[in-house]
Write a structure and sequence with these properties.
With 173 residues, the chain is of the alpha+beta class. The protein contains five helices and four strands, in the order ααβββαααβ.
């Protein structure tokens, strides 16, 4: 009888504790949003032009952001890290190119040339010790991004405004 009673009591205590914790940690009710301006009601005829102007600027900013496209290159880049003539590690990167929406096809058409340019930049970076030590330092990464962006602009044209490093892993062997 005791063998059944102890687990049953523990089950009830655990369930009660879980329900109590759930009730205590329940999220607060969402606040209702008032239909007034954040600093109180506007006087008649005041502020309406500013509200419309702010809305127009917000729409223009949304349009400017929506014209950018990010073309992710299909395969990862694998760069060997060589020390004293032997491969001491591998760096694996994934890259995306930021272009206007109209330039996506151009990047995809020139991807082989773009990959070749990127690999040359990455090999040069590895050979100069760019992937040694704290290779994710801000200054080091900024220099690598700038070199990759210049390579993208040479391969695709000035429409390539930036190169994004979306994944970066170093594996020592």
């Amino acid at each position: 009888m005791m063998k059944i009673l102890i687990p049953l009591v523990l089950l009830l205590v655990g369930t009660g504790g879980g329900v109590g914790a759930g009730l205590m940690l329940k999220p607060a009710e969402p606040e209702t949003v008032l239909a007034e301006a954040p600093c109180g009601p506007l006087a008649e005829g005041q502020g309406e032009a500013a509200v419309h102007e702010a809305a127009a600027h917000a729409e223009a900013a949304d349009d400017a952001d929506s014209t950018k496209a990010y073309v992710r290159l299909q395969n990862q880049f694998i760069v060997p890290v060589v020390d004293d003539g032997h491969v001491s590690g591998l760096v694996v990167l994934s890259l995306s190119v930021e272009v206007p929406e109209s330039g996506k096809e151009e990047v995809l058409m020139r991807e082989p040339r773009l990959r070749d340019s990127f690999l040359q930049v990455l090999f040069d970076h590895a050979n100069t010790g760019g992937f040694d030590g704290t290779f994710t330092d801000t200054a080091t990464m900024r220099g690598l991004r700038q070199a990759l962006t210049l390579a993208a602009q040479e391969a695709v044209g000035p429409q390539a405004s930036s190169v994004l490093i979306t994944d970066l892993v170093r594996q020592d062997v």
